[in-house]
Amino acid sequence: MKSILFKAADRGTADYGWLKPNYYFSFAQYHNPAKVHFGLLRVLNDDFIDGGGAFSTHPHDNMEIVTIPFSGALKHKDSTGGEGVIKAGDIQIMSAGTGVQHSEANASANEPVTLFQIWVFPKERNIKPRYDQKTFDVSERANKWQTVVSPIEADHALWINQDARFALTNLDAGKQVTYSNAFAKNGVFLVVINGTVDVEGQQLNKRDALGISETESFTVTASEDAELLAIEIPMN
Hints:
Elements: E1 2-6, E2 12-13, E3 19-23, E4 41-49, E5 54-60, E6 64-71, E7 73-78, E8 83-87, E9 90-95, E10 100-106, E11 113-120, E12 130-135, E13 146-149, E14 165-171, E15 176-180, E16 187-194, E17 197-199, E18 202-204, E19 209-213, E20 217-222, E21 226-233
């Protein structure tokens, strides 16, 4: 197993007043040539959006964009006609394809929103833009993986235009879970949302991440109650 450690304290940061992001990979004004992408995973932003904060309408193309909120509520509207409000337990995906315009805004004037926004390079370019969102039963990820994004129909997840899979788990202290790849030769970018875990002898704390490759499976043990996101991704 090959691994690359991404410590939370080493992430890029910015402060736009209403928006306070942490960047796992080079983005906007943050550039680190050693952290541009992991395989076909291009962006993972850990965002804090103040009440009333909003991203005005802006364009995207040929990118799979996944949003995972942890607190608060986020409004979305795009040029495909897709719109909605997402909150903790919901997942949103947008295939930008040939091109889309969209806006995002905190649904509250007072309460903040915290979320991950994740960009993945697509499998097929220039597809028709699309938008989808789904509410998942959080209890179904207790001490096991719950697949939330996948092109595999049997996963009952949001469809993505890539051989990629996103899965979440809430692990109780002392519990162990094994992740096994859905696609051969993929890597996994594992993020500790909360808590502390051990991954094959490597300790990870809150918001640390580990880029894992050259293995088809790995085991995670929770040192304390933990919440994890596994992003399985083609490496090239």
